[in-house]
Specification:
single chain, mainly alpha
């Protein structure tokens, strides 16, 4: 009887170790996913900053050249609505 109990206990411990390893893998994958989301956020921030710079350049150009033409006004509207 003791041998059977030890075998069952060893199997239980092995299964528990496997669950622990799976949890560690899941945790690592979650950390990687979080890091990837942070990277995407950083890229979005860079795109937003670049868009702001373009808008500023258009604004400066409009003052420098005495106003915007029809094409420029459409481009500004598309920038403002995020469709450019």
């Amino acid at each position: 009887m003791a041998v059977g109990f030890r075998s069952a206990t060893d199997n239980d411990c092995s299964a528990i170790d496997e669950v622990g390893a799976a949890i560690e893998e899941f945790s690592a994958a979650t950390d990687n996913f979080s890091a990837a989301i942070d990277e995407v956020g950083a890229v979005i921030d860079k795109v937003g900053a670049a868009t702001d710079e373009v808008g500023t350049a258009i604004h400066i150009a409009s003052w420098s050249f005495g106003g915007l033409g029809a094409q420029e006004r459409r481009a500004v509207r598309r920038l403002q609505h995020g469709s450019l």
